[in-house]
Structure formats: structure tokens, C-alpha cells
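cache lookup: miss for this entity combination. No prior model stored, computing from scratch. Input as submitted by user K.M.:
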Amino acid sequence: MLRVAGRTLVPGAILLVVTLLSAASLELAAAAAPQQQDAVAVARAYRQAHEVEILQFFSGLLRRPNYGGNLEDVTAVAGYLEEQFEARGAEMELLRLPDVPPLVYGEIKVPGATRTLGIYVHYDGQPATGPDWVNGPYEPVLYSGRMDLGGEPIDMPEPGEAVDPNWRIYARSASDDKAPLPALLTALDALQGAGIPLTSNIKFLFEGEEEIGSTHLGEYIEAYGDKLGVDLWLFCDGPVHQTGVPQVVFGVRGVTGLDVTVYGPARPLHSGHYGSWAPVPGQMLAELIASMKDADGNVAVEGFYDSVVPLGRGELEAFERLPLPDEQLRAELGIGWTEGEESLAERLLLPSLTVKGLASGSVGADARNVIPDRAEAALGMRLVKGNDPEHMIDLVEAHIERQGFHIVREDPDMATRARFPKIAKVIRAGGYPAARTDMGLPVVEEVIEAVRAATDQTVLMVPALGGSLPLYLFTDVMEAPALILPIANHDNNQHASNENIRIANLWYGVDLYASLLTMR
Amino acid sequence: MLRVAGRTLVPGAILLVVTLLSAASLELAAAAAPQQQDAVAVARAYRQAHEVEILQFFSGLLRRPNYGGNLEDVTAVAGYLEEQFEARGAEMELLRLPDVPPLVYGEIKVPGATRTLGIYVHYDGQPATGPDWVNGPYEPVLYSGRMDLGGEPIDMPEPGEAVDPNWRIYARSASDDKAPLPALLTALDALQGAGIPLTSNIKFLFEGEEEIGSTHLGEYIEAYGDKLGVDLWLFCDGPVHQTGVPQVVFGVRGVTGLDVTVYGPARPLHSGHYGSWAPVPGQMLAELIASMKDADGNVAVEGFYDSVVPLGRGELEAFERLPLPDEQLRAELGIGWTEGEESLAERLLLPSLTVKGLASGSVGADARNVIPDRAEAALGMRLVKGNDPEHMIDLVEAHIERQGFHIVREDPDMATRARFPKIAKVIRAGGYPAARTDMGLPVVEEVIEAVRAATDQTVLMVPALGGSLPLYLFTDVMEAPALILPIANHDNNQHASNENIRIANLWYGVDLYASLLTMR
């Protein structure tokens, strides 16, 4: 029996959202069409003959800074990608809105093709700040294995020398989400070199502000929607399953969040002359955050789980057949307890509230004997089917108010401070809702078959990733089905310092795209 | 009736510590001896003729980085001070222990003098990191007033031009604790220039690691104690009273603290793929910190107030006559509530527990969608008479354990992580106990008289500052009385960014030292 957030769930219960179906779908598979098998073999042979050149090209791409908040940097990456795909015969175009990262758009028209596949990648990356980068985030370094498990930096081999598939490249966006780009380009090179024709028209859509919330993707779709008709979108992003096997994902959680600042004295005070009298913002913030979860790690914000759309009976049954990597993950992550009482897969069916960051004064060797003037928390939320982003922030704001805080949108002036004993500045993040695609569509079966042809491993069918992509714009706004086909290793440090990709996962990407580009 | 930490105090109650006596002592004053009046007048005239030169000299001193953790920097400052005081006829010496900041020692022997005054200053400063410095911490800038109240940077005037006493100099250590040094040197220059003899032998003791906990001062005193016999120590540090009037302070709170790190996953995780399942260290730390105080802001750590030595009946009566600047301070600091129900003066009679810093992941524009691997808090404690520093840390550690945490001293390995669900690394700070000097000693009366001669304002007698100095080494180890004679303005941002001193307070320092050096 499923228990979520401490409540027992039965079919029809109000809590669950997004199905995690499973091995049921393994039975869908038909044999891959002959041209796919050829295409995968050709791509594999081409890649084996050019491994070092592909890694050199990829390193060059990783050297290009791509934080979406830096317009000059991302625009340069966009222009570079336009050139690279043009060189492979695509008709490319940079779609523009004023003062935001361009959308790299492109088409490959295939004579006689009756189907159009849309391929989405995002070329921007998370910020690359933080003290924990062993190498510069935009200085890709090849490692003999995972650096925290003893992997050592190694020189890039000469062309023709052997490349161990367990090596990794460390750099920002190595996985998230530059990896699909060299994989796609290599697949195109291999197929074109062998004269194997594509079987679908292709539209490329490479976004430049996914990691800063895809703030303008909706506007882009409104402005350029007439170009963007496809039969199926393929989202190339995210990691493979934690068990290491490929997955086809039918949905994502949504995302939003808020930044909360609470205030102590108007200026930092000497902790001796005022300590035990002046309000301490770090203490106030700690008490506020502590009030947001119960002792089991479930969110205690009123109404937080109320809008979650429940699963049906069949989905629940399928869900129970999913592999549960929890014990492996607990050991690998050194986790001694988890939030709630349920498995990871079950917890991903719930909205989350996460302290992504805390800051007040200084800690460690930099700590000073002051009562800081403020304390700040970055709170992230992941949303499931049924959760409206604005409504979820409203719920958290109502909770903050119930804890006695007056909410402001800018730093309070002295009059506001005089009027309200406890003040919280809340900056609401952008965000978007969860999304899901129907597993029963014919084109979905064709894709699953193509994925199977690209790997000799089991392929998992997962109704929703825990992570987020702006998939709803495609499924709900443009009303086209969308599947996610991740290639990165799950331990890629995505969004954190020392992001990396395992070389074997990059090679899987080459095989995957070769298969998809030639699918039945 | 006094209420402290929510409990009503009567004489003999177990909570209070250190008296804050008051206007009672204003009646002690005899008229200042004639030579002091002359000396103050001479010093004032000398200063008025050299104001710009004094500020230029002070700016030069402020340009010298003085964080005690940087041995090269502080040693250079020590050598510079040795030269400056030698130039005024003091016999100077740098006392050394291996690999720690030197103690600058010096003597001025006065023929016929029967009394020796020890003058303590610390020449090191707090770390000067942090993003909020408007100017570089070691780039002193003159301002027309308090920068957060509209003060503007102004050029240093030419010698002979007017200096407004409400101007301020902004730089690290402008108040804490370099300010006494130009004041002392100027007083010596003025007295020597006018041929006015000193009335006491003087011993200088300038410490170089006060802001990093005076870790080796005890060893220095053990090694060089034979040089350090005096009749009275004058501690030149700290701010004047919040009402702006000078004070003579008879004691200090002690200080200690601890740094607490709690652990989530062994590496930062994507907040989508693991959010609502993986433990969130910022949440765990918030819950731990929240548990340390009750809803009124009193410390909820078991036994925290138990060792506090109570005040006697007479001290309580005197205490109630002290001016209470709370309303002024609340307005000035924009504080809408305070910890506990008592006045600031009452709260300073209790030990404090303060969140000096919080850090986990990143906030604001740098926030990333991760579950960080750890969260860290710097917790400071101020101690009152009766509190043993080690015992107070023990109490907090016992509290942390009662919240379910296993305490470690280094980052936990995977075996430790597997064994204990919740782990807290606790780094215990150094520290020292509170101290107090008897108000009734004859030499104390002579000092009070000298302070009165240096100002036309009321002088407050305060039995203990909220802040800390290693005074116990003098009062309890060397067994000499010690008084604190602060000169800095109370709103000096001591220990924080944009530290400053008001010029009028620097001038008060010149008058004060001229008076003390020539006291009856």
C-alpha cells in the first residue's frame, strides 16, 4: 500500500499526481526496423574512429561560458551552434526577442517524410559560481573516473588513442545540457558520411534561458509558434535512471520558489553590546523555516498537498512494479534518513519544498562577532500535476504571515520597521506547472522502439521525472506530445559544482540520436 | 521589579551577574587636579592646531591591514607602532612567541612617580571580508556624516583647514581598536611639546590577536609576567554609552562559541530529482537552531542560565537608576521587538546565544536548484560572571545531542554517515570568562576624576560592558584592577562592514589620555 506524506493512499485518494509506470511497458517493444539497426551500427563505428576528435570538439563547446543571465555569453554560444548545425545542412535561424537569449531554431527537410520530430536542447547552464569547483567551471578537464571516488585528471589522448568509456569530462553543462549537442552532431556526421537518409523532418529548438526559468519561452512560442508545428517533441535533457539504465520519460514536475529575507537590526550590531536583546535574523529565519516541515520531513504549510491530482487504479498497480533504487542511493549518497516514510519514486509524486540556500553574516574563519542585519533563504518548490505555481507560492506566503511576519516586496524602510515587529521580504520566483504525455500514442511507440535499438540495456518507462523542464508549453500550450530522452549519468553533479558527464553516456547519446533520426 | 529571561528577580535570585551601577557614582567626583586641567587644555589646543595632520597620520595607520590571522600583516603593524612610540621616548620591545602576532610592549619611566599605569590597546582587527564594504576596508575615507544617514565622502582638507567634529572616518579598525593609538600619540606629543611631565610610570601593552580570541595572551603573560606589574590597567577599547556620553566600565562579558555543520547528501543533489526525499541540511539546521530558543527569545538550552551569579541588593538598587536608552535604540536600529521582556541593560546581565552566521548553498541571483550537501552556522556566546566557557559549550552540545544529532569533530566518512542518521560537526571556539573590578579602590577614584576632567559631559559608571575583552587575565590571573575607558561612538559598525569613528570621539580620546597621563 502506498503511503505518501504519512497518509495511506488508495486509488482515488486525493494525494498522488503523476504516475511512475514501468516494466509493463517493456512488453510494448517490436523489433527495431532494419534501417535503425544499420544506423546505430554506422554511428557506433564512426564514433569509435573519431572518439578523441569528438571529445576535443565537446571541450571547445564547454569552454564557452553559458550562464543565461549573461546575454553576451549565451548569444555567442547560440551563434556558434547556428554555424555548427548549418555546416551539417540544417537551415538555421536565431529567433530573437529584445534583450533575452536567442532561441536557436533549425530545420532539416527530408523528401518524402510524413512526420516531423522536434528536438529540444537547452544551451544555457546553471551559474558557475561557488567555491567548490576543483577546476574552473569553463575549463573542461578529463578524469579517469569520478573525482570524489579517486578519479584523477588525465591529458586528452591523441586522435586514434583509446578512450575509456568510464572516463568523465568535468565542466559546467557537461551534462546539463550541452551533452546532447556533440551527440547530435556526431550522429548527423555519421549518417551523412554513410549516405543513410533521415526518416523524419527535423526541427531543432535550442533554448538559452532554461536554467533561469525559461522566462521568455512562452513569448517565443507566441511570436514564432507558426514555425513550431511538429508531431512529437523530443526533450534531450536530464539523467538516465539511478540504476544506470536508459529511460523514456513522459512527464516532469513543475518548478517555482521564493526568496525570503527576514530582518534584524537596521545595521549589523556587535554581538556583545547587543547580544541577548537585539533580534537575531538567523534565529528568526531558522524558526520560520523549521515551522514549514513536520518532524517526518513532510511540508506543514496548510493546503500544500491539497491540489495534487490522484493516480488511477491501473497506474498505481504499474507503479508498484518500478525498480526502487533507494538502498543503493542511500549508501551512495551517505544518507541516514529521508523525508517522509515513502520510497524516492513515491516522494517524487509529491510537491517539494527545499531550502536551496541560507545566508546570514559569515561562518567558519570569516565569522565575525556581529548580529547580522538580515538572513536570507532561497526556497525551491517542485510541483506535480494539479499544482498551480502562483497558488503554491500563495500558500507559503500565507504560512509566513501566520508565523507573525508582515510581507514586503522591498527592503523595509524605518517607518515599516516601526510598524511591524517581524518583517519578511518575499521575492516570488517565476516557474511553470508540471506536464505529462499520454503513453498510448502511436508515435510514442515508434520512439520507444528507436530507443531500444540504441542500447542493449533494459529501457525504463517513467511517467514523470522529479526534475523540471518547460514541457507544459509544448504539451499544454502547443498541444503536441513530448517525451524526454535523457542521456547523462545520474551522478553528474548537475546544477552543483564539478558537474560532469561519463563518456559512455555521451556515446549512448550518439547511438540514440542515430536511431531516432532513422526511426520507422 | 527586574524580570530576566521571563523570571522575576529579587535580590538573591540566582540569575543576575554583573551590576550596572550608575549615577550614584557621579557623586564621587572631586575637582580635577590643576595639572590635569592644564594638560587637557594644552592637548586640546595642540590638537586644534594639528587636526588634519592627525587625521592624515591616522589614515596611514588604517591603511595597514591588521587581521590577526595574517601574521605578516599584524607583525608589520607591530613594528610600525614600536617605531612610533619609540619616537616619543618610550622604551619599546616586541615580545614574541613562535608564529603568533607579537605583543608590543613599552615603558615610559617617570622620575619620582610612585604609581604605574598599564595601557592596553589591541592593534589587530576583525576580518575585513564581506560584500557590504562601500569602500575597501583598508582604504580609509572621510565622510561628512554617517553614510547610511546621507553622509557623503569628502576629500581630506589641507593642514590648517577646518575639520567638522561630526565627520567620520570609515575603515576597518577605525574604532576597534586603532583609534586609541593616534589619540595616545597626540596626547604625548602635546604634553612633551608643552613640557608638562607625566605623573605615573606608563607601561604599554598592545595586543595583536584580540579579535581572533586572544588565544596566546595567557601564554604571553606567563612568559613575560615579570615585566607586567602595574597598579592599574586601563583598557582602551569599546564604545561610549549609547546615549553618547563617556563611560567608565568595570567589567566585561566573557565570550565563546561554536561552529555547527549539519549534513545532507554526501554531494549536492538536483532539487528536482531528489527533492521531497533527500534530507535538506538547511532545513535540519533551521530546526536545530529553532530548538535553541523559546518563543520569547530566551535560550532554551537546558542549564543555560543556571550558573549565573546573582546581584546583591545594593547593586540591584543602583542598577535601577541607570539610564535606559532602549526606546532611542529601538527607533535608531529599526527594531520592532527584542529578545526577552527586559531592558537592554538587564539583558546584558545574561549569557547570550547568537546566530552570527548561516551558510548553505547559495541565495538570491546565485541560488541554484540543488539540495546542498551541508549547512553551517556560527553560534556566538557571551558569558557573565559564573559562566565557565567550556561548560557553556558542553551545555549546547548536550542540547544538540538531545535533538538526535551524533556529534563529530571532522566531516563524517561514509561509514559514520551509514551509522548515524543525523550528524553535526561541532568546532568549539576558544574563549574566556567574564571579569569585573571593584569600584571602591582608591586608584579607581583617581581615574574617574581624570575622566571627568577630560569632558564636560556626564560620565557614566557601568559595572560591565556587553562586549568582551580578555580582562580576566588581568583581574584574575595577574590580579591587578582593570578599567575600560572607551572612546568610540556607539554606532561605529564595530565588527561589521563600514566600521567608522566620529572625529569628535577621536578628539575626546586625545583629551582623555592627556588627563590620565597627568592624573593626581
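stored under new cache key. Chain B has two domains: 2-12+257-308+334-428, 31-142+170-252+434-517.
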